[in-house]
Amino acid sequence: MINSNRENLSLNEKILEHKELIAALVSGFIILLAWRMESTEQTTAAVIAYLTAFFIGGYAKAKEGIEDTIESKSLNVEILMIIAAIGSAIIGYWMEGAILIFIFALSGALETYAMNKNNREISSLMELQPEEAWLVRGGFEPIKVSVKDLKVNDHILVKPGERIPADGEIYKGISTVDEAAITGESMPITKNVGNEVFAGTVNLNSVLTVKVTKPSSETLFQKIITLVQSAQSEKSPSQQFIERFESVYVKAVLLAVALMMFLPHYLLDWDWTTTLYRAMVLLVVASPCALVASIMPATLSAISNGARNGILVKGGVHLENLSSIRVLAVDKTGTLTQGTPVVTDFIVRDDLDKQQTLALIAGIEGQSNHPLAQAINAFAKEQGVINEQNITIEDIPGYGMKAQFNEQSYIIGKPDFVGAKLAKQFADGALEQLANEGKTVVFLKDHQGIAALIALKDVVREEAKKAVAALQELGINVAMLTGDNETTAKAIAKEAGVSTYVAECLPEKKVEHIKQYEKTSGHVGMVGDGINDAPALATASVGIAMGGGTDVALETADVILMKNDLSKIAHAVKLSRKMQRIVKQNIIFSLTVIALLIISNFFQAISLPLGIIGHEGSTILVILNGLRMLSKNV
């Protein structure tokens, strides 16, 4: 019984979703019946049937047109179609008026399909958000509660195969989590105690206890849904222009039709029937339906395509701007590079054991929270080295550390701290070459002199190199803006393949450079982490945030990449440029068809049915062309 009710509900939902298409098809069927009646001289019955077709097919668009006219206090294409259909009926062309309503309803149903297709993308996202969760309190059995009732610091149980119901961090357990819904990354990620997890992602193979860190209304998943919804409602400059143009154009068409209803009779000696007939044809063929539909379906489809690929665009205006950027300014740390230093070179004095020396260095650095110290410790663990214990240290901020171990003194830190001359001479002058490669060098000094050096570097992502090359193929110059020194910046820029770089660039300086690029190159994109780069992101034509979908990134930028993957920018640019090409094709095509139909009507070379087919057919083709943006291929 329950399943039967669900099936009925689903059927009703499908009927409601396609009601415009059903109405159009019913209208078309009635028109066929009316034509058949007319051919057998059942005139009155045929007229009644045509009127029925008028009402069934035209009700939705007529209601929409009248409501929009009242709300905006301006005329629109729906009003033109209503007047044209009524006018056709008045002069006795019942079938032509009904066909106009039928094809207009059909094109409207297709446009509604485009909207529904994009709405289904939102619905499919929302379906990934669980509505219930297993709440754990003390030693009691887990209880099922609504996700909306979860509070920060609550503990929830997530079983294998279930979607995680709230943003949080793992309190107990180890498992692999499928984060494709958030990042678009197909490979699952292993999550351990303390790791962050997101609502809507799937726990794959082990039971997890998750500590809730955000209420359901503030989860990353909910913010993504809100962003895509707002993006679909925000109109691009081109769409806004078309809508302003529509009102003026409709008034011009009505004025032209009013003149057409009597001027040709006096100036060209047309009879009154021909004059009125041609006025009705002009009313149909001059209507800008195809022009109005040139942009919105393509824009909505492009936004939907981007969302499926982990690219969140906050509106049509930003999508348009993406197509015209000529310079892309990128932050170095966390964008081109991994964002954390790693050990690249380890050189030890000939009289010392390499493993023992590394154990000593790791034992000293293990007592520091500095990123370089953490990188050295990670390197030692990779080498299977156990840190020396019972080391006494003294931290010298900005330089390094002094240490005591086995009654011997050690110094570890910058070249100037251990002795610049000794540091330059060690290992046949390795310091100069390593520094030229953009590496930070840390030295260990004992009572005999320099004992070892460790070189570290924030390495360039492999995918970043490919992404930079892909962007340059698209004609976009990539400029790196970094706070690092000249030597490091030059080395990273060369390795990443960027066109230009600016070293020692503080956040306020980044804004100045963005403005300079805009003066010389036009539209400029800025890529950053959404925190210290916020001023530059706001200044650029298009601000693009990376950082795995952090809260700050979601709030700051115009475009959000849900993964730290620069290649998504090239995809976004291609998506934008394809959308612009389709929009231009649609506009040129629709204007050409309107012009040809108007000229043909003036020379009496086109009938009302052909005018209807040409006009509404062009509208349908324009909408279908826009829907190509839903394709996975860009």
TrEMBL record:
UniProt similarity note: Belongs to the cation transport ATPase (P-type) (TC 3.A.3) family. Type IB subfamily.
The main place the protein resides is: membrane
Family matches, as InterPro entries: ATPase_P-typ_cyto_dom_N, ATPase_P-typ_P_site, ATPase_P-typ_TM_dom_sf, ATPase_P-typ_transduc_dom_A_sf, ATPase_P-type_domA, Cation_Transport_ATPase, HAD-like_sf, HAD_sf
- Write down the membrane topology: Multi-pass membrane protein
**GO (cellular component) term, any one:** plasma membrane
An annotated Gene Ontology molecular function:
ATP binding
Pfam families xref list: E1-E2_ATPase (PF00122), Hydrolase (PF00702)
Q: Which NCBIfam families match?
A: ATPase-IB1_Cu, ATPase-IB2_Cd, ATPase-IB_hvy, ATPase_P-type
Q: Where are the transmembrane segments?
A: 21-37, 43-62, 74-93, 99-116, 248-267, 279-300, 587-606
Task: Give the residues annotated as coiled coil.
Answer: none
Q: Which PANTHER family match?
A: CADMIUM_ZINC-TRANSPORTING ATPASE HMA1, CHLOROPLASTIC-RELATED, PROBABLE CADMIUM/ZINC-TRANSPORTING ATPASE HMA1
Q: Where in the cell is it found?
A: Cell membrane
User: Keywords on this record?
Assistant: ATP-binding, Cell membrane, Ion transport, Magnesium, Membrane, Metal-binding, Nucleotide-binding, Phosphoprotein, Translocase, Transmembrane, Transmembrane helix, Transport
Source organism (scientific name) = Solibacillus silvestris (strain StLB046) (Bacillus silvestris)
Q: Has the keyword S-adenosyl-L-methionine been applied to this entry?
A: no
Q: Spell out the protein name for this chain.
A: Cation transport ATPase
